[in-house]
Amino acid sequence: MTLPPGDPVIRIVAMPADANPNGDIFGGWLMSWMDIGAGTVAKRRCRGRSATAAMDGMVFHAPVSVGDEVSVYGELLATGRTSMTIAIEAWRRHRDEDDAVKVTEAKFTFVAIDDDGRPRPVDG
Q1: How would you write the pLDDT of the chain (124 residues) with one tens digit per residue?
Q2: What are the residues whose beta carbons fall under 8 Å from the beta carbon of 41, sequence distance 6 or more?
Q3: Helix H or strand E segment including 76
Q4: Neighbours of 20 (CB within 10 A)
Q5: Which fold has domain 10-112?
Q6: Residue 10 and which of 4, 67, 71, 119 are 20 to 30 A apart at CA?
């Protein structure tokens, strides 16, 4: 597998507090960083507030361990009137290795919102 093009939107190191008793990182921890990464892409596109509306097709390919560096990559796939679809991939690299492995992927839908939390046009 080849890393996605461009720089990650987020890079973080998995810590002991993020793991279960077996030393594997909780899926929810990873999902939250993917959501934050997708939100970063959405904010750049709509130039303002946005909110997660849906997450589809999350697949876990490999575990993440304590000490792994996790890089989250995002790509804007589509833009509607008020919504954005963003593909997110998370890759991990063990501390003492150079190769990265894709650990999960999903598609997030974000909605651009105004100051009152109501949908607004992405381009407005």
Answers
A1: 788 888 999 999 999 999 998 889 999 999 999 999 999 999 999 999 999 999 998 999 999 999 999 999 999 999 999 999 999 999 999 988 999 999 999 999 999 999 999 999 999 7
A2: 9, 74, 75, 76, 84, 86
A3: strand 69-79
A4: 10
A5: Thiol Ester Dehydrase; Chain A (3.10.129)
A6: 119
